[in-house]
């Protein structure tokens, strides 16, 4: 179990490893470009060298990149759709330059095209982003919180995206980023060992546990099935500390205890990190 968190890469990506080290993390996540829009900062050879030197200095072997929030493969607007395809490809290439293991993204909204056509376009968009891509950074599809007509808020929809892109799966398409808050808000109960067993039995049947590659570790401000994206600090939301401990125990049992757990809570995450480290110690 690797304890991680999203950290700032402001004023240069090379600052991120130091920010992660200050929190006592095992790994970390960044945006490589402004999440709300705007041009991606240059990644010159000197910038890459500086970043890798900072990784080595602070003892980090791995990190991940979150794609910007404006991506939407379900859009009926061609500028947004093809722009998203382009940005995902760019982020994969940037990740390869920096040495990131994964880039994860939110699939987008289906309100323009409807369920059937929209999901088909989302799946096709993933394929377009990966076409002729040969880099080392793999793409992950993140489960959504189910607010509105959002793509990827169920295991069946995630499976549809992966199944459509089987030729990339396990290669440049790594699999799924499982956000605990998003999943809980979409109706997947993570509060007890029994409910977690049931949830991941369903995940395994629909997708396959081998394609579970990353955990976004967030408690939930909304109750089970609340269908809103609202992160809360660990133990202060509706999942609770017992739920996260049970989740860690389940992953250990399934030999998935090498997964990175990335906190995305806002404000001070010192207490969140401490709680995850306590859980890590308990599971051994």
Protein model, in words:
This protein is of the alpha/beta class and 284 residues long. Helix 4 (115-130) packs across helix 5 (155-164). The longest helix is centred in the first third of the chain and has 21 residues, at 78-98. The chain has one domain (2-283): TIM Barrel, CATH 3.20.20.150. The protein has an eight-stranded parallel barrel with strand order 1-2-3-4-5-6-7-10, surrounded by four helices. It is built from nine helices and ten strands.
What is the secondary structure topology, with strand pairs?
Blueprint: E1 2-6, H1 16-22, E2 27-30, H2 45-57, E3 64-66, H3 78-98, E4 102-105, H4 115-130, E5 138-142, H5 155-164, E6 173-179, H6 180-185, H7 193-206, E7 212-217, E8 219-220, E9 231-232, H8 240-253, E10 260-263, H9 270-283
Low-pLDDT runs:
none
Strand runs, count: 10
Shape: globular
CATH-derived architecture: Alpha-Beta Barrel
Biggest sheet strand order reads 1-2-3-4-5-6-7-10
CATH superfamily: Divalent-metal-dependent TIM barrel enzymes
What's the CATH class label?
Alpha Beta
The overall number of domains is 1
Family: Belongs to the AP endonuclease 2 family.
Binding site for Zn(2+) 2: 142, 179, 216, 264
Protein name: Probable endonuclease 4
Pfam families: AP_endonuc_2
Brief summary of the model shown:
It catalyses: Endonucleolytic cleavage to 5'-phosphooligonucleotide end-products. The protein is α/β, with parallel strands linked by helices. It is built from 9 helices and 10 strands.
